[in-house]
Write a sequence for this structure.
């Protein structure tokens, strides 16, 4: 801590104090610190910082944080930063396991119950998914339980979105994405960028995905272990679906019989995104599709909002949030 005291009389010092001139106290700490941001030129930055200070100080007072705990928190955040690299973002992982990523996603993609709900993008999307034809098998190494995936993309009034783009990616039956197993899985395995037909329909052949753990060999994994939480995500297929004039949706479809549906490590599961994946035992149909018999089927229809429509308002909260004093209206 630096000592900022001076022998210069107060009255002779340059006027660098804030307009309020109020000194720090335990009772008024949030107000005093928030006031230091009062002249922030960017109004949104001022709003965010003011609210952050109030909530942060309320948290510290609520738990009466000890100096030792403060040190542990600083060390944890330091190690979280040090774990980050071009291929590892431990802070996003921290945001994920605290539910903040899903909250930001949900706030920014409200559906009002009229369109397909979104969920997190996750770290395994390729910017350029390999282009595929409808009906293609994206399971390039032919391992796992075969699955026919199909669906239709429509607008809010049920209008088919001809030519919608359908970008999909998923794990193999061992719970790994291709990029996690170079040399074991073929590049581009279990990924594809499809173009829906004139009726907005899409279909392709794949395998049933498996649950998998998020990376847990860093500080976030230690946090999960210390709190008795597991690192797993339930089995899912990722989708990004887009059509001109409509809002794209980034989402998953979850396999209904997967473990961890009720305890996703990143809170990505929404009830509306869970689908049964029933087995079909029909040798003739399997031969027609080019799949081994028996196979499973997964149907997932998607509805997109029109780009020009106003986003739905937030649902009223059951519990009123704490009123934050001093936040700009
Ligand atoms: Fe995933």
């Amino acid at each position: 801590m630096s000592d900022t005291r001076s022998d210069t009389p107060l009255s002779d010092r340059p006027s660098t104090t804030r307009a309020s001139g109020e000194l720090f106290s335990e009772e008024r700490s949030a107000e005093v610190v928030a006031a230091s941001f009062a002249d922030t030129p960017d109004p949104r930055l001022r709003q965010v910082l003011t609210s952050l200070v109030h909530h942060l100080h309320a948290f510290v007072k609520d738990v009466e944080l000890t100096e030792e705990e403060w040190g542990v928190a600083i060390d944890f955040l330091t190690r979280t930063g040090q774990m980050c690299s071009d291929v590892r973002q431990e802070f996003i992982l921290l945001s994920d396991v605290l539910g903040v990523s899903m909250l930001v996603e949900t706030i920014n993609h409200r559906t009002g119950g009229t369109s397909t709900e979104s969920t997190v993008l996750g770290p395994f999307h390729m910017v350029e998914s390999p282009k595929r034809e409808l009906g293609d098998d994206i399971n390039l190494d032919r391992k796992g339980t075969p699955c026919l995936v199909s669906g239709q993309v429509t607008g809010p009034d049920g209008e088919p979105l001809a030519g919608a783009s359908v970008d999909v990616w998923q794990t193999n039956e061992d719970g790994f994405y291709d990029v996690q197993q170079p040399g074991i899985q073929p590049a581009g395995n279990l990924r594809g960028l499809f173009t829906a037909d004139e009726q907005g329909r899409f279909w392709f052949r794949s395998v049933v995905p498996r649950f998998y753990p998020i990376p847990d060999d860093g500080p976030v994994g230690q946090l999960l272990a210390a709190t008795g939480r597991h690192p797993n995500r339930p089995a899912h297929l990722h989708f990004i679906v887009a059509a001109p004039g409509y809002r794209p949706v980034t989402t998953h479809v979850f396999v209904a019989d997967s473990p961890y549906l009720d305890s996703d490590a990143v809170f990505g599961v929404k009830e509306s995104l869970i689908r049964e994946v029933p087995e079909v035992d029909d040798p003739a149909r399997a031969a027609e599709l080019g799949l081994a018999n028996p196979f499973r089927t997964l149907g997932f229809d998607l509805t997109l909002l029109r780009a020009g429509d106003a986003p739905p308002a937030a649902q009223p909260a059951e519990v009123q949030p704490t009123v934050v004093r001093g936040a700009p209206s």
In short: Helices lie at 29-35, 43-63, 67-82, 90-97, 100-108, 219-226, 283-289. Residues 26 and 61 are 9 Å apart (CA to CA). Residues 122, 124, 236, 238 surround fe (ii) ion (CB under 6 Å). The chain has a mean pLDDT of 90.
